[in-house]
Amino acid sequence: xxxxxxxxxxxxxxxxxxxxxxxxxxxxxxxxxxxxxxxxxxxxxxxxxxxxxxxxxxxxxxxxxxxxxxxxxxxxxxxxxxxxxxxxxxxxxxxxxxxxxxxxxxxxxxxxxxxxxxxxxxxxxxxxxxxxxxxxxxxxxxxxxxxxxxxxxxxxxxxxxxxxxxxxxxxxxxxxxxxxxxxxxxxxxxxxxxxxxxxxxxxxxxxxxxxxxxxxxxxxxxxxxxxxxxxxxxxxxxxxxxxxxxxxxxxxxxxxxxxxxxxx
Length: 264
Ligand SMILES: [Zn+2]
Ligand SMILES: [Zn+2]
Description:
alpha/beta, 9 helices, 8-stranded parallel beta sheet, 38% helix, binds zinc ion
């Protein structure tokens, strides 16, 4: 089984001590590729550095909505330069998070719109983060003129109405370990059978959102555990795991415009 962890934060301090072991375990579990996603300028730089030294690992650069209040044109110029690196395959994560409210709404909106413009200029796929924006994320995304289908709503945990809007806009849907959680995953498991198979990708969002059963023994999530997400998703959709894994590999490579023969 060949897996692509479409969203992780291997640059996080949580991995500073043992990143080699973490990457080794990922490969052992069949994770042939992973997207390391930046949240600000430092984390984006570190994501690119890690991607540069590991085959099959790629990077995305961007300012997370939580960190929007730290963003500036100068820092975006810096990210633009970073994005010239061949290992950078997406802009993100960007979007709106009205749940935790670490940055004011107007600031989040401003830098989300600005980063969409840059992604369009640079012709890069985008990784979207959305929480409790009540349709505002899609309003901004739709009016940005973002061309094509190379965008993913990562860590989807929204409503049926939101899901429909994403699918209508041809977005990819990122599924995390939430799908494995007894209570928190209930709504998600109800919705997932309705997602067209060519729009699905899996992710860990490591070090966060550790899936079941790993959650029982460790707090920190890591790319190797994306297999638990895939297996549960296959069960929920009543699909053969091997077939689903192969399909999601192709989806993720298509999303990030990575040669599907690569990454192994
Ligand atoms: Zn996110
Ligand atoms: Zn993330």
